[in-house]
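Practice problem: predict the structure.
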Amino acid sequence: MAKISDTEQYLFNLTLFPVFDMISGLKNMHANQALFIDIIKTIINQEFPTEKMAYEQAYAQQNWEKIEKLAHKMKGGCMYTGLTRLQYACQYLEDYYQSNQTTSLDLLYQQLLHTIDDTQQELVRWLESQYGI
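Answer:
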């Protein structure tokens, strides 16, 4: 396993960011709560499983360009829906790849997958606690 350099430590400190910023996401949807809930449910049930499979297929081929493109696409959706921690996981992987560094790419990829899972679990908990869904 690669050792993380001191200058790269910040890339792995995602706990500085909230998993989910509902206010930001709702604001981006013009306070349409029903739309927001529908989008969150779609993310949980369709987007995350599909995207995760695409990441895993690209990783199996060591296709880092594809992984970077997937991260870029996901980052945009995260910004729109208030999925802040996942947004940064995507951004850090994307930026690192674009800087032609490779030492921590595997770790950033694993962090991204882990953050997808954590975000999905947090969204499910939020829907259950707020709306009984």
